[in-house]
Specification:
Blueprint: H1 2-12, H2 26-52, H3 56-69
C-alpha cells in the first residue's frame, strides 16, 4: 500500500527514473529517493490502519521503538 501511495507523491515531485538516466549512479539515486518516500508513508499508514482496527496503542509503541533505533530517542521520554 505504501508503494502505491508513494507513486503519486513521486509524480507530484516530478521524480521519475528517466530523470536520473543521464547521471552516473542515477538508478541508485532514484531508488534511494523512492525509499525515502516509501518509508515515511509506510509508517503513517501503519498508524492509520492501527487506528481503524482499534490497535493504535500497539502500533504507536512499535513506531516509537523503530524511531528510537533510528536515532530519535530524545523525542520520547523513557517511562521505565
Amino acid at each position: 500500500m505504501s508503494v502505491k501511495v508513494a507513486k503519486p507523491i513521486l509524480d507530484f515531485l516530478n521524480i521519475h527514473p528517466e530523470t536520473f538516466e543521464s547521471l552516473w549512479g542515477g538508478n541508485v539515486l532514484y531508488w534511494m529517493l523512492r525509499i525515502m518516500v516509501v518509508f515515511p508513508a509506510y509508517q503513517l499508514l501503519l498508524l492509520c490502519f492501527g487506528t481503524i482496527f482499534f490497535q493504535f496503542k500497539f502500533f504507536w509503541e512499535f513506531e516509537k521503538k523503530i524511531l528510537k533505533r533510528l536515532g530519535f530517542k530524545r523525542f520520547f521520554k523513557d517511562q521505565g
